[in-house]
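Tutorial, part two.
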Amino acid sequence: MTTPEIRSFIQRLTRRELIPGELAALTTRDLDDINAYLAECAEVTRAPYGYGGGLASATSRSDPAAPRRTYTEAEILAEFGVLR
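Running the prediction step on this input gives:
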């Protein structure tokens, strides 16, 4: 996904405007792209996207070489209030 596609997806997700099947159509690559984008947002602003200090990044600040944790589709959806 491109950055504009990711932004659009996140906006539509938070507004609950996704069409049926759109979530199921996400590929592993799409989820990786979304995670990378959200990690970048967390690194630059630390907001508005956050999940325990950063949705896509659980890297310790003291160890920037530590592996990043990526989150599952369910965790991303839960963070945006889509899953209850």
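The two ends are 26 Å apart (CA to CA). In part three we will examine how such features are distributed along the chain.
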